[in-house]
Amino acid sequence: MTEQPAQEFDVVVIGAGPVGENAADRASRTGLSVALVEAELVGGECSYWACMPSKALLRPGAALAAAAAAPGLAAQVEGLHVDPAAVLAWRDWMTGDWDDAGAADWVASAGITLVRGHGRLAGERLVRVAAPDDPSAPASPGLLRARHAVVVATGSVPVLPDVPGLALAAPWGSREATSAPSVPRSLAVVGGGVVACEMATAFADLGAHVTLLARGGLLSGAEPFAGQAVERGLRELGVDVRLGVGLAAVERPEPGGPVTLTTSDGQAVTAAELLVATGRVPRTLDVGAESVGLTPGAPLAVDDSMAALGVAPGPRGPWLYACGDVTGRASTTHQGKYQGRVAGDVVAARFGDPQAAGAPTHADAPPPAGAAARPWSRYAATADDVAAPQVVFTRPQVASVGLTEREAERRGLPVRAVTYELGELAGASVTGPGYAGTARLVVDAERRVVVGATFVGPDAGDLLHAATIAVVGQVPLDRLWHAVPAYPTLSEVWLRLLEAYGL
């Protein structure tokens, strides 16, 4: 059967999660025609299986805990628990019941062409689209040709450790956990990262008996005190936390029945469900990387303009770009969206018409192919390396940006870290008795600028953006001294940290 001629667009974006949406939107702003290819739901992992549903599951327990800590409310809420059915119904509403019609409408309103199906690179500026799994979906167009650029934003996929019996036991990944139709009586969680800690918190709030197994400590990439605080918080919720324990074998004799884990120390753990959250890898095995000379399964390495490395450029410069988890540079939605904005802006500036209606106006210009962008150019994802923020919505919250003390020292920076207990602030005392938390700044002692910050405590995420601005802006400590915090708020910790540094 003869294949239909390729449909042509100026730009083709593979992956319609938040990262791909941002890249497509930005690329279209100088008049370029853009096709956005998606095999599943428009809006991607974050909207339906990650950020939004997980926070919907976590918020009620956090709100109840905050009420229980407030003077005058503790007695009224004593003995209360979150309502699992109501929480799951709220989660369903937050995900739109896994219907992407609204997101698809936004794509159309932005003038972007949505193509349903699985997109794979098929050579220079070519994308082959296979029919989607949904038989009711429109037929795939087959082959798309990009006149100028292809952007890959296919995200990441979870990985299962090689443990006897694990794959046959039908374990949950993060998708199954956040979309669970009911709360299991008991849940075993394997892993010590963000997903493991957040889901252990959520399901403990919802009434499940949770056992958490982690080969090392919790949140190993954060400052050590952060993981220790989260461990204490989980234990206070009744989670059976076992650190330094690996998984040796898994058995599930009956489909849907209980699962039994054998741990590395010879213990047995039985639970109604098992969540494995031991990491994710860039989704490049099924994107046709080999068709352009790249290695399937490896991250799509990019420069700071998000142009793929190791791919021969086209007549007008780099044609293949990548952003988000698929690059291996960052693993948060907000950082991927930032990369998507950079990639889309670069493509729009290099190939679009700067005089097009609605085109942004600014003095910056993308660097020539192969040349470095000026510091903090809008066409370079500079923040990936030095100022990536993250909030872990456990109890307590963990908020961080930039480098930990350990990472800064590993990079050879002349650093000095200062720490202050949030509970000693007047702003903490007004929230109620027993507020506990810790803040740390990591300072480049030679340049006297903040290169990293971590805040641990209730609602610590609210402190993060000020730290992000300090790191990105490379604001000298002597100038930060004049940023007067309002009293009585937790922001006063900035004054106390600077005093601890010696100002």
TrEMBL record:
FAD binds at residues 55, 119, 154-156, 325. Residues 389-494 form the Pyridine nucleotide-disulphide oxidoreductase dimerisation domain. InterPro entries: Class-I_Pyr_Nuc-Dis_Oxidored, FAD/NAD-bd_sf, FAD/NAD-binding_dom, FAD/NAD-linked_Rdtase_dimer_sf, Pyr_nuc-diS_OxRdtase, Pyr_nucl-diS_OxRdtase_dimer. Residues 354-374 are annotated as: Disordered. Binds 1 FAD per subunit. Keywords: FAD, Flavoprotein, NAD, Nucleotide-binding. Its cofactor is FAD. GO terms for biological process: 2-oxoglutarate metabolic process. One of its GO terms (molecular function) is dihydrolipoyl dehydrogenase (NADH) activity. NAD(+) binds at residues 191-198, 279. The keyword Flavoprotein applies. It comes from the Bacteria. Disulfide bonds join 46-51. Residues 9-340 form the FAD/NAD(P)-binding domain. The keyword Nucleotide-binding applies. Transmembrane segments: none annotated. PANTHER family: DIHYDROLIPOYL DEHYDROGENASE, MITOCHONDRIAL, DISULFIDE OXIDOREDUCTASE. Belongs to the class-I pyridine nucleotide-disulfide oxidoreductase family. This is Dihydrolipoamide dehydrogenase. The lineage of its organism: Bacteria, Bacillati, Actinomycetota, Actinomycetes, Micrococcales.
